[in-house]
């Protein structure tokens, strides 16, 4: 098997492919949600069905969400791997044994061994068994991960290994710097997550208000479902959608 064929089999963390079930589920849930919103605003099933085709955007939203969650987990487990490598090298273990020990350390945190970082460490260990240089395996991992911190670690590790530098000290300092950066990123992510929740609550509140008024004051809301009321409802939906795009843009903070 050539390197190109092997690269195609290994996971690429810059993309995420949904399964058929996930795509169908996303389309179905998105279609039902849009139909429900349409019926809430129009009380007309034909106009509500006109919104259903926009559910084609739902798989993309699901794919982006799952990819971000996967990359965040990989980033966190990479931080834990750095601590393990630093400890093993400080204890006098070889580079090869340090990576094997990192697998065992991560298995203590994830006994099922289903994390991507454990899989990547197993790949690196397997490559070491076939006498492949560890720096080459690290660079392949960093290329597929597409993360700045992993790229930097691979570059520093490679330079130190080739120039005969103090690998223990370099790995220790690099792991400390990267870990501090990851800690700051996690603090920012927690703050942003709180604001995202508040933004979602603000987006849902108009829908809840319309539903409440429709259930408790049907006669008062009746003009919204006839004549010019359709145009007003359409403008309200468009404004709500623009608010969603605006909030999503503001909350999209790259870490």
Automatic annotation (TrEMBL):
It is a multi-pass membrane protein. Its main location: membrane. The keyword Cell membrane applies. InterPro entries: T2SS_GspF_dom. It holds the Pfam family T2SSF. The chain crosses the membrane at residues 20-39, 45-62, 201-218, 224-247. The keyword Cell membrane applies. GO terms for cellular component: plasma membrane. Keywords: Cell membrane, Membrane, Transmembrane, Transmembrane helix. It is found in: Cell membrane. This is Pilus assembly protein TadB. It comes from Paenibacillus wynnii.
């Amino acid at each position: 098997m050539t390197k190109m064929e092997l690269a195609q089999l290994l996971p690429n963390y810059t993309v995420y492919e949904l399964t058929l079930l996930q795509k169908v589920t996303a389309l179905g849930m998105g279609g039902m949600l849009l139909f429900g919103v349409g019926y809430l605003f129009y009380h007309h099933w034909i106009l509500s069905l006109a919104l259903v085709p926009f559910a084609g955007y739902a798989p993309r939203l699901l794919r982006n969400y799952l990819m971000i969650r996967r990359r965040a987990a990989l980033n966190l487990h990479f931080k834990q791997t750095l601590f393990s490598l630093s400890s093993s090298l400080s204890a006098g273990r070889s580079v090869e044994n340090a990576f094997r020990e990192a697998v065992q350390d991560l298995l203590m945190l994830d006994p099922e061994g289903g994390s991507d970082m454990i899989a990547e460490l197993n790949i690196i260990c397997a490559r070491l068994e076939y006498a492949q240089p560890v720096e080459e395996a690290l660079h392949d991992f960093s290329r597929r991960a597409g993360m700045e911190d992993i790229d930097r670690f691979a570059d520093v590790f490679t330079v130190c290994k080739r120039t005969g530098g103090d690998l223990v000290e370099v790995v220790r300092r690099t792991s400390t710097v990267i870990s501090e950066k990851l800690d700051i990123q996690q603090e920012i992510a927690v703050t942003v997550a709180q604001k995202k929740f508040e933004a979602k609550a603000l987006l849902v509140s108009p829908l809840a208000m319309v539903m409440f008024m429709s259930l408790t004051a049907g006669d008062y809301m009746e003009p919204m479902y006839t004549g010019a009321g359709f145009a007003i409802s359409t403008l309200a939906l468009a404004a709500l959608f623009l608010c969603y795009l605006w909030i999503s843009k503001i909350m999209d903070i790259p870490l």
